[in-house]
Write the structure tokens for this entry.
Amino acid sequence: MRGHIRKRGKASWAIVLDLGRDASGKRRQKWHSVKGTRRDAETELTRLLNELRTGEYVEPSKIPVSDYLDFWLRDYAKSRVSPKTYERYSQIVEKDIKPVLGQYALAKLRPLQIQAFYAKALSEGRKVGIGGLSPQTVLNYHRLLHKALGQAVKWQMLARNPAAAVEPPRPQRAQMRALDGLETTKLLRRVTGTRLYMPVLIAVTSGLRRGEILALRWQDVDLESGRAVIARSLEQTAEALRVKAPKTKRGRRTVVFPGYTLDALRTHKKEQAKLRLGFGPAYQNDDLICAREDGTPWPPDTFSTTFAAMVRRSDMAHFRFHDLRHTHATQLLKQGVHPKIVSERLGHSNIGITLDTYSHVLPGMQDDAIASFDVEFKRTIENL
């Protein structure tokens, strides 16, 4: 395994690697271009020769990044992620990554080019209007690129992942809004008598996600024991609605509804039965608790639009439907419920996620715990 350097221009060099001879006896060579000083070229030659010795060398490919990402999406990612995730990946690749990085040869893509892409997106990446994209959006680009290029390494199309050497932006934690008791009561009064009442009540008393509520069936809930099996979620893509299973093992769980919610569910079931009779054969009975008037699934995007419109019409401060999940968790923690129980109700994959997400609530709990400990400790000492 040998190599040598040839000068090509004022600051351009060619590294020629001798890879021996093929089965027919023909001499095999690979050329690599390097810009910079001769020392830069010598450093690159040393690196390439070391890769040859360790078996890590990957022959340069002329496939462009755009073609590789299309292949990765179509023949790898599509069968491994949910349709919604695949749809999001495709949009990022087509609209954001390919226009900037797509023309580079995959083998020649460098960390500096990816870093420049991120910097430009942060400063002037908006398609509509002036300004840059959020750090979270650019972080999503990075995660996709890192995953796609990491697979290229596994397929031996790259020697190393250039995205691994790039520093992605660090987004600030999204502001979480949790309603207090008065606001929760006000919200429930606001939606009483509307189709929003049941999903809102379930959210604030169980912490279920929007998709989980919209996929919940009567057969999933035992109105006597109050136990509900959460094993489905409704997802909306550009193609259609689909019911999917939880991402993690802990996502499939049993949640106990409080008595107030069970009473409301019993009333809701009777009203739904009357509605079904009114529609007659036109009613689509999918056994859904929170459905459209004709029994068909309530598309998550349509549901969110309806909820957001209600919030705008009210005199309450802005909040999202997902904040009702935070509301449930926050109220439980403030009532002294163990974080492990809260984590199980929310379906978090581990308790660390719960502790990290609701760390702002825990300091107050710690103050209360220490105050209680102080009283008991003093009482114990005084009785000695």
Remarks:
- The beta strands are 2-9, 12-21, 27-35, 227-230, 233-236, 241-244, 253-256.
- The longest strand covers residues 12-21.
